[in-house]
Amino acid sequence: MTLSEEDYIKAIYHLGKGENTTVTTNAIAKGMDTKPSSVTDMVKKLSDKGLVNYKKYQGVTLTALGENSALSIVRKHRLWEVFLVDKLNFSWDEVHEVAEQLEHIKSEKMIDHLDAYLGFPKIDPHGDPIPSKDGEFKKSIKKLLNEASMGVEGICVGVKDSSVAFLKFLDKNKIALGDTVTVIDKEEFDGSLHIKINGRNMHISNQIASNLYLQISE
Amino acid sequence: MTLSEEDYIKAIYHLGKGENTTVTTNAIAKGMDTKPSSVTDMVKKLSDKGLVNYKKYQGVTLTALGENSALSIVRKHRLWEVFLVDKLNFSWDEVHEVAEQLEHIKSEKMIDHLDAYLGFPKIDPHGDPIPSKDGEFKKSIKKLLNEASMGVEGICVGVKDSSVAFLKFLDKNKIALGDTVTVIDKEEFDGSLHIKINGRNMHISNQIASNLYLQISE
DNA sequence: AATAATATTTAGGCAAATCTAAAAATATGT
DNA sequence: ACATATTTTTAGATTTGCCTAAATATTATT
């Protein structure tokens, strides 16, 4: 697969939300910041190669082959993100662009050794699951904290708003990625939440809760 | 710079042996396994971009800009080689192909962090020197063991012949990359050498010595 | 120095991936 | 259901990097 083909396969996978739902030409064009006519061209090629199912005007889905390819790319992307954060001290919001490049490196041996070297991580720095070598992985159960049900426990894996003000708030209140959070109670009146974070009780506003992502442990 | 441009710049650098000697069109074509006419095309483009000096029929040299680019690519290539060997347990002879891909990844921050993470290595797994961030580096003093003068001390950094038989020989005799070797004496008759390796005296044939590379410590 | 051999460049073309503009198919609104 | 709007495809052009074949320049030989 060429670099460009890989980009399309990955985009189709993500637009299909990991399910294998049909993705339209325009959606791909928007998602990839290109023109619909370019998408049509490429989709024909991918169809010829057996990576997508395509009928004119009907949109595309990934074939089994295409889905495997997508998972392999996603796996590489997320493993590299873990590497950048865990080993090279990048912060979680700096890694995407570089991982976009690294995901195209072709060497199965390297990626398997990298996986082992990182300790076979199950989720990436944004809380998204990392497919195993054979394409298996747990569906991501990632929610904004304010959407989590009462009693739910999860790991804080990301922020939606990465403004300096918000990050400072987290720092001051000793909330960090990786912390375990349990939803104790929700106030109906203002949507604020009582949570337990790393064993400590806390009361946070809905606004805060709506900017924190939780990885729910099933 | 595109991927292809980077490949040309690197090839011109290596063919010029790191000195800035003139490199011919045919030499580049051979070195890159492509056609002379393709080289002419690309060399014109590189000249327009100020990366090489080029006059028709006269061959090319790198400009200061071109040389900086080349050193940056070589730096990345060799740092990744160290990473693959030191961290991912690749052997020295497996890394080249993957490093050829990794060297094109664009992120100055990443490569600087990688450098630090690896402990600012000075030589790669083949004994070649790694340019520093600002393009400085020690000329490689890398010699075949049988060409080293008496009394010379160096580090064993590579093999010329990587046949299984030879590697087995090294293994059986406990000679490994990284070992410190001193040339004690040379027999004129058969060219065999008396060496000290990791403190232990040894007598090896010229044939063995002519397949082992030494990185001479200045 | 003239000719032969070699090296290099030019000219013209091809494939990949993109684009614009126009045509065709599908979807939407009343 | 019909006209209109939107989506998708086609047709034709462009750029990058490469190719072959032919032309031109340089180098080597006698």
Features:
homodimer, 218 residues, alpha+beta, SH3 type barrels, six-stranded antiparallel sheet, two-stranded antiparallel ribbon, 8 helices, DNA-binding
List the helices and strands and how they pair.
The structure is a homodimer of 218-residue chains.
Chain A: H1 3-15, H2 25-32, H3 36-48, E1 52-54, E2 60-62, H4 64-86, H5 96-102, H6 108-117, E3 142-144, E4 153-159, H7 164-172, E5 180-186, E6 193-197, E7 200-204, H8 206-209, E8 212-216
Antiparallel strand pairs in A: 1-2, 3-8, 4-5, 4-8, 5-6, 6-7
Helix pairs in contact in A: 1-2, 1-4, 2-3, 4-5
The first copy, chain A, binds a DNA duplex (30 and 30 nucleotides) through helix 3.
Can you put this structure into words, describing what you see?
The structure is a homodimer of 218-residue chains. Chain A has helices at 3-15, 25-32, 36-48, 64-86, 96-102, 108-117, 164-172, 206-209; strands spanning 52-54, 60-62, 142-144, 153-159, 180-186, 193-197, 200-204, 212-216. With 218 residues, chain A is α+β, with helices and mostly antiparallel strands. Among the domains of chain A are: 3-62, Winged helix-like DNA-binding domain superfamily/Winged helix DNA-binding domain (Arc Repressor Mutant, subunit A), CATH 1.10.10.10; 142-216, Ferrous iron transport protein A (FeoA) (SH3 type barrels, Roll). In chain A, helix 1 crosses helix 2, helix 2 packs across helix 3 (36-48) and helix 4 crosses helix 5 (96-102). Chain A starts with a helix and ends with a strand. The mean pLDDT of chain A is 91. At the A-B interface, helix 5 and helix 6 of A face helix 5 and helix 6 of B. Chain A binds a DNA duplex (30 and 30 nucleotides) through helix 3.
